[in-house]
Amino acid sequence: MRRILVAGAHRGLIVVSVLAVTDAKPQSSYPSPRPTSPGGLSPYDKDAPIHTVDEFINGFMDELNFGRGVSLARSSRNDQYIALSKAVRQNLQARWMKTLARQYEEQAKSVAYLSAEYLLGRQLDNALLATGMTDVVEEGLDALGLSLDRLRAQETEPGLGNGGLGRLAACFVDSLATMSVPCIGYGIRYEYGIFRQEFEDGWQVEHSDRWLALGNPWEFPHPEHAVTVHFGGSTETYTDDRGRERTRWLPAWDVQGVPYNYMVPGYRNGRVNTLRLWSARATRAFDLRIFNAGDYVEAVRAQTFAENISKVLYPEDSTPQGKELRLQQQYFFVACSLRDQLENVLPKYFDLANLPDRVIFQLNDTHPVIAIPELMRLLVDEKGMEWDDAWAITQKCFAYTCHTLLPEALEVWSVELLGKLLPRHLEIIYKINEIFLDEVRAAYPGDEIKLRRMSIITDHPERSVRMAYLATIAGSKVNGVAALHSELLRDKVLPDFSAYWPDKFTNVTNGITPRRFIRLSNPGLSDLITQTLGDEGWVTDLERLRELEPHADDPAFREKFRQVKAANKQTLAQVLSTRDNITLPTDVMYDVMVKRLHEYKRQTLKLLHIVTLYEQILSGKVAVEDVMPRAFLFGAKAAPGYRIAKEIIALINAVGKTVNNDPQVQGRLTVAFPANYNVTLAERLIPAADLSEQISLAGKEASGTGNMKFALNGALTIGTDDGANVEIRQLVGDDNFFLFGMLEPEVEATIAEGYSPVSVYENNPQLKATIDLIASGHFSDGDRNRFEPVISNLLGEDRFLALADYAAYLEAQQRVEAAYADPDDWSRKAILNVARSGFFSSDRSMVDYIDRIWHTPAITQ
Ligand SMILES: *Cc1c(COP(=O)(O)O)cnc(C)c1O
Q1: Which of 513, 593, 596, 598, when mutated, tests ligand 1's pocket best, judged by the most ligand atoms within 8 Å of its CB?
Q2: Where is this region: Disordered (predicted)?
Q3: In this predicted model, what pLDDT tens digit does every residue of 610-651 receive, in sequence order?
Q4: What's the CA gap between 191 and 309, in Å, rounded?
Q5: Does a cis peptide bond (omega within 30 degrees of 0) precede residue 640?
Q6: Nearest CA to ligand 1 atom 8
Q7: Residue of 424, 425, 601, 729 marked catalytic
Q8: Residue-level pLDDT at 20
Q9: Please, which pLDDT band fits residue 105 given cuts at 50, 70 and 90?
């Protein structure tokens, strides 16, 4: 056995892992066929089979001929993609078995990340990168007359998330695997992920995302490990044989959760963690119903009721709908995950009093918070523990991440619905609340108002359970996702709780994985960095990008940097030309705004800027030759029921159509809105961007992670003082960031004074001309009513103060133009953005979670 030590330092945390490679069969003449421990490996377990081109061709052809049952000549591109993926995954599987065996030996504390969403992005490229197989595979495919580029395009990305929150979960599990920290990600295997967006006459149309239709080589179903989850019914009390009064749940129906395992490869460290996604399946109870019902066909149809639970991802981002199916999904996946931990992951006869030493459940927003009463139910009702003992354990086993500041995004469940679906859990929540309020009453005698404010149960607008409060009360820690957000969370969202438990509140600024968001997505810049720094260590130690700083003043380096950006623009233009039939100039500034469509993110402010530039040409205020050429790129999905968001998309498309085709513009302004923004498209757009638009209303964006991706790829940010923009600006420096707009306290003051968007409009002639141009029907073939909803939204309420920040935004855009006019200085600023973005690696986020919340060591050796 050859052991290769791979070590990396993550700010004090030494991460050492082993790449164990067996050179020869074991010496023993008759090795035991059984592993020494139930979690170990036997001498017959296999090692990674593919190291050379020949071995790859052999593995690939095995998968094609015997896995797919087709000859090379008859194989389809999908056959080839699946065979390729299955050949590549063999190397990962060998590492996976070793990781699990090692973890079993160690019995170390692990992270159980509970998230209803994982926006993973494509798997093949990441697997190739993690295993270092890209060259071998490329050569092997070439020898067979196949192209890796064509095969990788065959993969449909698993879109099991809406946006930032789901993508964050994917970055975190990547980092933990790379840092050799034991982690299992738990979530839902939605049969349909986030919808596929198309435009019909500029209007968003949703299509179902049939991501599993052609088969999925990256998942491993284990129906034999299915667990049963109960719903509905009632509860009863009884006296147990020790004379104690106890409660049991008499559920009405149940479903099974089938685990589908996904590999989460660490970057070249020989480790592979697990992502376990649950799929719902009807239980035998449904079979019985079939037998009893007499109507066989109707009864089989009824099975689909159970299977609906994991059918589709809810497409609302930041605005949860209180739908019963959504609560079913939430309970379904956490009940499966807790049972999996207690019964499959922990050894037999494990003393649950020690649970906090073995696992920490991280709650990714409120979606999995029902896990708290579920653990209490398991410990008290099923394991017979005393309430206080169970509560002490539960409080140490959970930690909660809040992802929002928008009041409408704080999830609540009506008592009626919760009681109908999970009657025992509702009782437990009431009891948790009762005991908690007794404590509060003792701490603040006579303060009934505070008591009502801090109660988990609220009576308005209907009697409901505030999930964020439940998570805060039960969690060992509560964290926000950027410095400003954590501060506002403490002071504005949960002030009573932070006063009561000051030490419970902490911050962990979000991050992004450098593997996917620079090393994979920006090979040109990655090569330049590696050449300049001398090795690839920066991929797992992103602070090393600091070493680029001195090169920002080197004209030759700047020239190379510009060449990379120019090549990325060419690549993007080519992709959009084939993907969307969009024609994009390649020698202009790329000004990019990609993120979910939400009023608080203020895509309308960006649009007002574009219409302003256009109006200035039309009205002759600015000669067209004096307009700086730019391409404006948008990417955004709107929740299907979010009417005004869809109107804004339609308006962007209408403006694009008019501006792109107006000869007076002489091609100086281009608006492109490729449909179906997803991770795959983000990986193309971001490396090509010059300017990153992060223009949310201050105090509304919790963190943002798109902002980090852009800075890391050498785009300059134009942004408000919001979310992680604050930290980006502090790190890259004021000179290398275009700040504009009101600060959060000014926003508060403006609203308190009685904000009037109409008077802003009346008092700014350019703003008036811009809005009037839209209202005139110029972008809607003379139809003045077409965009009336957007106009009246802006002039009527303008909830997110787009008009109030308009003048400041235009002024900041003029600073952008002045800076871009000096290419050398712009490159210098862009290079400094890259050099100073190391902090935003999700590896750093993980170090912070480990230090401040989890206290989980890396597995060594
Ligand atoms: C990073 C990312 C997001 C989050 O973007 P924000 O600008 O932080 O809202 C959303 N969607 C996709 C596909 C992403 O890659």
Answers
A1: 596
A2: 25-45
A3: 999 999 999 999 999 999 999 999 999 999 999 999 999 999
A4: 10
A5: no
A6: 704
A7: 601
A8: 38
A9: confident
User: Annotated catalytic, 595?
Assistant: yes
Lining ligand 1 with CB less than 6 A are 163-164, 167, 595-596, 677-679, 682, 704-706, 709
Q: What is the tens place of the pLDDT at every residue in 803-827? A: 999 999 999 999 999 999 999 999 9
Q: Mean of the pLDDT values across residues 464-491?
A: 98
Token pair 């590696």: residue = 530
Task: Reply yes or no on whether 463 is catalytic.
Answer: no
Q: In which band, very low, low, confident or very high, does the pLDDT at 766 lie, cut at 50, 70 and 90?
A: very high
622: CA distance to ligand 1 center in Å? 35
Among left, alpha and beta (phi > 0; psi -120 to 50; other), residue 131 is: alpha
Facing residues of 693 across strands? 718
Which pLDDT score, from 0 to 100, does residue 12 have? 41
CA 594 to ligand 1: nearest atom = 7
According to DSSP H, which parts of 404-482 are helical?
415-421, 423-443, 448-454, 467-474
**Can you tell me the mean pLDDT for 231-250?**
96
Q: From atom 4 of ligand 1, which residue's Cα is the shortest distance away? A: 164
CB 184 within 8 A of CB 345: yes
pTM, to two decimals:
0.95
Whether the Cβ atoms of residue 690 and residue 813 lie closer than 8 Å to each other: no
Asked if residue 428 has pLDDT above 80, the reply is yes
| Substitution candidate for ligand 1 out of 194, 196, 594, 684 with most atoms within 8 A of CB | 594
Calculate mean pLDDT across residues 738-754: 97
Closest ligand 1 atom, residue 723 Cα: 8
Tell me which residue of 188, 220, 19, 176 sits closest to 102, measured CA to CA: 19
97-101, 464-468, 818-822: segment of lowest average pLDDT: 97-101
Distances (CA, A) of 189 to 39, 262, 278, 550: 26, 10, 5, 47
Q: Average pLDDT for residues 829-838, to the nearest whole number?
A: 98
Question: Is 630 considered catalytic here?
Answer: no
Q: Is 709 a catalytic residue?
A: yes
* Residue closest to 691 by CA, chosen among 709, 726, 718: 718
CA distance 587 to 573: 11
What average pLDDT is seen over the chain?
94
Query: 222-248 as b/e, with b when 16 or more CB fall inside 10 Å?
Result: eeeebbebbbebebeeeeeeeeeeeee
Mean pLDDT, to the nearest integer, of 440-468?
A: 96
Contact 507, 482 (CB under 8 A): yes
Give whole-number Cα distances, 581 to 237, 469, 675, in Å: 66, 49, 11
- The DSSP annotation for 123-171 comes to SHHHHHHHHT-HHHHHHHHHHTT--HHHHHTTPPP-EES-SHHHHHHHH
pLDDT digits (tens, 9 = 90+) for 16-51: 333 333 444 444 455 555 555 677 888 888 888 999
Closest CA relative to residue 719, chosen from 604, 589, 813, 595 = 813
Q: Choosing from 10, 196, 276, 403, which is the catalytic residue?
A: 403
Residue of 788 and 29 predicted with greater confidence: 788
What is the 511 CA–ligand 1 centroid distance (Å)? Answer: 12
List Cα–Cα distances, 53 to 2, 20, 139, 268, 815, in angstroms: 22, 21, 7, 19, 53
Which of 679, 686, 705, 728 is the best mutation target for the ligand 1 pocket, counting ligand atoms within 8 Å of the beta carbon and taking the most? 705
Is residue 705 annotated as a catalytic residue, yes or no? yes
Interatomic CA distance for residues 340 and 350, integer angstroms: 14
- The pLDDT of 444-448, averaged and rounded, is 96
**Which domains occur in the chain, in start order?**
2-98+122-152 (no CATH), 159-510+848-854 (3.40.50.2000), 514-840 (3.40.50.2000)
Residue length of the chain: 861
Q: Which residue has the higher pLDDT, 104 or 369?
A: 369
Contact 314, 291 (CB under 8 A): no
